[in-house]
């Protein structure tokens, strides 16, 4: 990693972030299996502590399944405002070392430290310092992967979790990828991994043997990406301040909703959540999309766009109300509602308040 022509990329990933925050703030939860999310029948695990993961509990798992796997599981409601504030603290630490920060989520980010603000030559040292500062300032641990591209850095950050770091040097990239199962590759989901296995592709070494034409035939446009990562190649740069394309929030209900007023009440938390984002960032939207999932899991969306941004919370609420009205008469009960804002702009909120939505 000393060659100045080779990029030095760090992937920082907080360890069981939401669950670790709850264990930090509630000492009685330390050492116990914890899930952040709803314990109700239709609840979903947002995050699981490492103690819970030992029982097979994972994020996005239905709460009922998680409880079957771990009857001692403790559910804690999420506190997203707290997680966002801690995330800002962590990103401030990143900014001490580089301006090239690409957040992936509240709990992870890519950093390009090839030319860093501390003028350090070792990306390994930078990762170690960042992790130490995160621990000192937040009481939380992070893991890091260090390599010459984003794909390998992402893989490496999982290699020594929790509270560890791992380096994949340029001369190690091919061998490192060759020995991994394709299901471990970022960008290869369970369905794609199963399809590859059916084709006799089980490891990175197997994937490397496949011609690009064959992979494109089997996997479409993604085939070229798979061909590249099998060779430990990834030319994607770390993109700082990547523009967000949408912001959304949704709620799954314990009981199916059928009444108009119940749907409006159920949608209100999502409306408040996305508007809080607009207030905090100064970003406004021209398109409002209502997401609806019925009792049989059928999903539909209804959208409304305008020439100008949605300038106030009452306007957003009115649009959502009209979109909900358009659902009636309901064909069946509703189990989930969500709101997504898109066609975002950086128009300041103060200016946006002077605008109204033309319908």
From TrEMBL:
Mg(2+) binds at residues 13, 107. CDD domains: PolY_Pol_IV_kappa (cd03586). InterPro entries: DNA/RNA_pol_sf (IPR043502), DNA_pol_Y-fam_lit_finger_sf (IPR036775), DNA_pol_Y-fam_little_finger (IPR017961), DNA_polymerase-Y (IPR050116), DNApol_IV (IPR022880), Rev_trsase/Diguanyl_cyclase (IPR043128), UmuC (IPR001126). Gene3D superfamilies: 3.30.70.270, 3.40.1170.60, 5' to 3' exonuclease, C-terminal subdomain, DNA polymerase, Y-family, little finger domain. Its cofactor is Mg(2+). The record marks 18 as: Substrate discrimination. It catalyses: DNA(n) + a 2'-deoxyribonucleoside 5'-triphosphate = DNA(n+1) + diphosphate. Its EC number is 2.7.7.7. The active site is at 108. Keywords: Cytoplasm, DNA damage, DNA repair, DNA replication, DNA-binding, DNA-directed DNA polymerase, Magnesium, Metal-binding, Mutator protein, Nucleotidyltransferase, Transferase. It is an enzyme of class 2 (transferase). Pfam families: IMS (PF00817), IMS_C (PF11799). Monomer. PANTHER family: DNA POLYMERASE KAPPA, DNA REPAIR POLYMERASE UMUC / TRANSFERASE FAMILY MEMBER. Poorly processive, error-prone DNA polymerase involved in untargeted mutagenesis. Copies undamaged DNA at stalled replication forks, which arise in vivo from mismatched or misaligned primer ends. These misaligned primers can be extended by PolIV. Exhibits no 3'-5' exonuclease (proofreading) activity. May be involved in translesional synthesis, in conjunction with the beta clamp from PolIII. This is DNA polymerase IV. It comes from Hymenobacter frigidus.
